[in-house]
Amino acid sequence: MARSGILYLVSGPSGSGKSTLCRRLAAEGEAEFSISCTTRQPRPGETHGKEYFFLTMEEFEAKVAAGDFLEHALVHGNRYGTLRSEVVERLAAGTDVVMDIDVQGAGLVRSCDDPAIRAALVDLFVMPPDEDELASRLRGRGTDSDDVIALRLRNAIDEMHHWPAYSYRLLSATPEEDYVRFKSLLTGERLRVSRLREA
Predict the structure, then answer these.
(1) Is 74 helix (H, G, I), strand (E, B) or coil?
(2) pLDDT tens track for 41-91
(3) Is 77 annotated as a binding-site member?
(4) CA 100 to chain CA centroid, nearest Å
(5) What are the pLDDT digits (tens) for 140-152?
(6) What is the pLDDT of residues 152-188, one digit of tens each?
(7) Is 140 annotated as a binding residue?
(8) Is 36 annotated as a binding residue?
(9) CA dihedral sign, ordered 77, 163, 178, 190
(10) Pick from 24, 6, 65, 12: which is nearest to 180 by CA?
(11) Domain named Guanylate kinase-like: which ranges (predicted)?
(12) If pLDDT is split at 50, 70 and 90, which confidence band does 193 have?
């Protein structure tokens, strides 16, 4: 029996730890990471084609016009989007894909009319334990100005109201505890009879 690919869609506010979870899952070969496009500037150490595809606004708009995106949204003043090519072909081949995506994008993926996307979707919201811990994590990055941190914190608090729209919620604890639970959800979904098909 062959298994259809799972689209593991993961959201959560900045500082929740969702990106670390997604990248670890991909690094361990458990799923392939869907690299998003963005118009924001790279942070120190980020590389085009690894963390993101860094595009100019003109390049991004051209891809929107061509229908290349599965979803796209404006977040923190920058454009973000997921290329269809990063997802659809992998799912068809039975490969699991993990997406690190904001709540706007998640809503667009959920409303997608592609039956393959709808059948593959598993959505999880990673929730920080409380606002104080979230603020501490954002400041601890050392990559953003105080103004940017304040904006991210305001947006994060707003995003946290969206968790009931997801099928699953992970309340963050330690990085290791989070990862064990994060990976166990994917493992459980792989066992679902509805995901099996005749080879």
Answers:
(1) strand
(2) 998 999 999 889 999 999 999 999 999 999 998 877 899 999 998 899 999
(3) no
(4) 1
(5) 666 667 787 777 7
(6) 778 888 888 999 999 999 999 999 999 999 999 999 9
(7) no
(8) no
(9) negative
(10) 24
(11) 5-187
(12) confident
Give strand pairing partners of 7: 97, 121
Amino acid making up residue 154: R
> Residue holding tokens 């809503």?
107
pLDDT at 99 over 90: yes
13 is in an annotated binding site: yes
Distance CA 136, CA 129 (A): 12
17 is in an annotated binding site: yes
Dist. CA 140–CA 120, nearest whole Å = 35
Domains of the chain: 2-191 (3.40.50.300)
**Sheet of strand 168-171, all strands in order from the earlier edge strand to the far edge:** 32-33, 97-100, 7-11, 121-127, 168-171
94 is in an annotated binding site: no
| 45 appears as a binding residue in the annotation | no
19 is in an annotated binding site: yes
Determine phi and psi for 127, rounding to 5 degrees: -110, 125
Measure Cα distances from 86 to 68, 70, 91, 95 in Å. Answer: 10, 9, 9, 11
